[in-house]
User: Fold this.
Amino acid sequence: MKIEIPKIKTKKIKEFFKKLPQVLAERAFLTFLFLFLIVLIIGGIVFYKYNVLAKKAEPQILEQPLQFQEKTYQSVLKIWQEKEKRFEAADFKEYLNPFRID
Assistant:
């Protein structure tokens, strides 16, 4: 039992895509209606997903309220202070002049 796979004719595909803009332009009103219908459908799906379904879903209630994590805050604060020190030290550092000839 041998299965034959038909060859893809790239010449016909190229011709189709070359003629497509002309055909669409000749039928501009129908093309506009078709594209408008597609946009309405996509817009309806997005509206349904992000508005209707979002209202139906109930928010998750956390068992514990959020708590401030002091250790994390201290580590972030330490990093920021180190960066600020390096930034301020850059104002006083003297750099070599690359254009000076000795």
Remarks:
- The chain has a mean pLDDT of 88.
- Residues 10-58+67-92 form one domain.
